Structures are given as structure tokens and as C-alpha cells.
Amino acid sequence: MVNQKYLDKAEVLIEALPYIQRFNRKIVVVKYGGSAMLDEELKANVIKDVVLLKLVGFKPIIVHGGGKEISRWVGKVGMEAKFINGLRVTDKDTMEIAEMVLAKVNKELVTLVQALGVKAVGISGKDGGLLKCHKKLSNGEDIGYVGEVEEVNPKILYDLLEKDFLPIVFPVGYDDNFDSYNINADDAACAIAEAVNAEKLAFLSDIEGVYKDQNDPATLISELQVGEAEALIADGYVGGGMIPKLRNCIDAIEHGVNRVHILDGRIPHSLLLEIFTNKGIGTAILREDGVKYYNEHE
Known about the structure:
The strands form 3 sheets. Strands 5-8-2-1-11-13-14-12 form an 8-stranded mixed β-sheet, with helices on both faces. The protein has a 4-stranded mixed β-sheet with strand order 6-7-10-9, with helices on one face. Strands 3-4 form a two-stranded antiparallel sheet. The chain has helices at 4-23, 40-55, 67-76, 92-115, 155-162, 185-195, 226-234, 242-254, 270-276, and strands spanning 27-32, 59-64, 83-84, 87-88, 120-124, 131-138, 141-152, 166-170, 172-174, 180-183, 200-205, 223-225, 259-264, 283-286. 40% of the residues lie in helices and 24% in strands.
């Protein structure tokens, strides 16, 4: 008699098959941030997940932040991190540190991918004119070198994908004067996903997904159409940091991204579980005419 454990493994592979077929040669943008960037084991798991996506025929692009690491280095040099309305105040010195730290994080991720036998190239939004931006104000207030993406030139990404590289992007852009700007990684990932008509955009962060009731983990919503997501915001079911995230998701879908996933990067292999299983593990947001894969009543 074959061990049940091995039969279960075969079941998992069979369940993944239709998803592998559906997304073969499709672009998937993964926004990587939060605690999963600080824990070495979680970091290794995320990179393994993305490498697996690449090896089964997807075309992944990683966009990453590094806010906690930037704050750590700002403190190391004796400066103080300042925030206004949740956005980092970025003067010339802070911008210089941010760019150096993000470049350091970027090359660490490139090394992890390369170590698994996949070719990776790390770039910033300045490379190939990828992310052109203008100064972002916070409720009318100038907070320094914080950028709002105004134009994406995805040619460098297409060139890298075509040559079988995995692009890893850190969100530093440039303006008309070619000054450097720090861009929110969620915003950068959205703008890139829209520009390359990504099939999927996955946000890995420190939240499990969208809840109907924030105080009840049992109310996690597996799939949401755009109208349902708008209603949750309007009816006050979601608040705080989830609102800009959901707005980003809605915006990405309205600009051609097929599905957007909000995932808890603290759960090992959450990316694979969400993409390759019927129910998934986080929240998927889809177009009004998007087909729900998972039926709550089954």
C-alpha cells in the first residue's frame, strides 16, 4: 500500500496543474515587504517561491521595499526617522541613505535567486528610465524626496524577461531634473504591474488579507470583486493601512491587471498556497466580470 503522505503530495501537484497551465508565460508581479524581509528563513522561503514560479513557466518580477532597514540605518548614522501622515519625510541626506540601503537589500535578493540557479538582475526605477515621478505631497505638505509615479517605461523589464532574467526592482525613481525620489513600494509595484499588463499582482505584507470583521479571523474573505472591495471601504469595514492597499488593488485591476492578491508574508510559502490551490490563503481581488475560482458553499 502506498503511503498516504505520498498520495497527498501527488494530489497537491494535480491541484496545481490547471493554475500552471493557465499562467504559463504570464507576467506576475510580486511586491515583497514587511517582516518577511527581516526574517532570514522567511526571506529564503519567499525567494524559493518566486524561483519555483519562474521554473514552472511564469514570468515573475519582484518589487521590494526596505522601510524598516532604512529606519535602522538612519538611526545608525545618528539621524532620526520622521513621518508625516504615515509617509517618511525624506530630505537629501535621508534619500542618500535610502538609496544605498535599498541597493544593498536588492543585491542580497539577487544573490539569493542566483544561488538557486536562476539568473536575476537588480535594478532601480532610474535604470532604463523605468519609473519617472514627481514630488508627492502629504495633504498639501512637502515631505521632501518622496515620489509619485507619473510614467513607467517597461522596456527594460521586457528585455530582461525575454532574455530569461528575473528582474528585481527597488523603488527609487527620478524626476524631470533627474533628482532621486523614494517611492512607496506598493505604489511602484502597482504602476509596474499596470505597465506590463501583469496577469497577477501579489502583495506580501504583514496582514493575512481582507476581513469582513477585522476582529474576527474567521471572516477572512478569499475572493472579492472590485465592487465588493469598494463597498467594504465605503461601509467602513476596512480602515487604517488597508484602505490605501485596497485602493492600489482596485486601481491595478481597473488598469488591466487580472487578479490582485493580498498575502501574509509571515506564513511560509503563502505565495505558492495562494496561486496554486483552489481556496488560496489570502484575499484575491478580481474584476467585476472575473470568475471566482473558489465557491464558499462547496
